[in-house]
Design goal:
The complex is a heterodimer.
Chain A: E1 4-7, E2 10-13, E3 19-25, E4 31-37, E5 43-51, E6 54-57, E7 64-66, E8 76-78, E9 87-94, E10 104-105, E11 109-113
Parallel strand pairs in A: 2-11
Antiparallel strand pairs in A: 1-3, 3-8, 4-5, 4-9, 5-6, 7-8, 9-10, 9-11
Chain B: E1 3-5, E2 10-14, E3 19-21, E4 24-26, E5 33-39, E6 46-52, E7 60-61, E8 64-69, E9 74-79, E10 88-96, E11 99-102, E12 106-111
Parallel strand pairs in B: 2-12
Antiparallel strand pairs in B: 1-4, 3-9, 5-6, 5-10, 7-8, 8-9, 10-11, 10-12
The chains are: A mainly beta, B mainly beta.
Chain lengths: ~110, ~110
């Protein structure tokens, strides 16, 4: 079945460490997204990419970095510059030209700073 | 950034009754898409219903329907015949030029 796979499901980070969250899709979608969700809050856009080797900052990009070397993959690195990284992270994708069809989401990664 | 506002942090509904969730948005665009997503305790985001701004007819998906008022920039969700499985957080979302923005969400509780 086609879908989005996020890994790991749970991730623990020590202070000062960089960590990378994985997002892989086999839907042949062009556009991919990273969102952050804090407890009881909505989703805030971190980065998005509409095409390979290109990406744009979202509303809260500081302290995060991404790459888009392959159409299927859009990894997110949470750097030590991100002062409060503990949150739930969701990856999403959609097909260019079919934006109205909706966005597909992965099952998320829960990141905790220890 | 586009602003999507959900003014009801929590709503409670009796099983089999109807509940309406409010959503307003701010945009200067004429062509865009609106969505309602459901997030149950599993935290998986599930698309409930979608609406294209150029369509005047309100979307309907089984027990879920919307009231889309383009001039008022309002997009409310009505859940009819509420079921226990409808209990979740509901997010209103706006999309234009492949950028999807969310409201803060409304937690729906269903009373048996």
């Amino acid at each position: 079945d086609g879908g989005i796979t996020q890994s790991p499901k749970y991730l623990f980070r020590k202070e000062g460490q960089n960590v990378t969250l994985s997002c892989e899709q086999n839907l042949n979608h062009d556009a991919m997204y990273w969102y952050r969700q804090d407890p009881g809050q909505g989703l805030r856009l971190i980065y998005y990419s509409q095409i390979v080797n290109d990406f744009q900052k979202g509303d809260i990009a500081e302290g995060y970095s991404v790459s888009r070397e392959k159409k299927e993959s859009f990894p997110l690195t949470v750097t030590s510059a991100q002062k409060n990284p503990t949150a739930f992270y969701l990856c999403a994708s959609t097909s260019v030209g079919r934006e109205g069809g909706g966005y597909t989401f992965g099952s998320g990664t829960r990141l905790t700073v220890v | 950034a586009q602003t999507v506002t959900q003014s009801q942090p929590e709503m409670s509904v009796q099983e089999a009754e109807t509940v309406t969730l409010s959503c307003t948005y701010d945009t200067s665009e004429s062509d865009y898409y609106l969505f309602w997503y459901k997030q149950p305790p599993s935290r998986q985001m599930i698309l409930v219903i979608r609406q294209e701004a150029y369509k005047q007819q309100n979307a309907t998906e089984n027990r879920f329907s919307v009231n889309f008022q383009k001039a008022a920039k309002s997009f409310s969700l009505k859940i009819s015949d509420s079921q226990l499985g409808d209990a979740a957080m509901y997010f209103c979302a706006y999309s234009n030029d492949y950028k999807l923005s969310f409201g803060a969400g409304t937690t729906v509780t269903v009373r048996a």
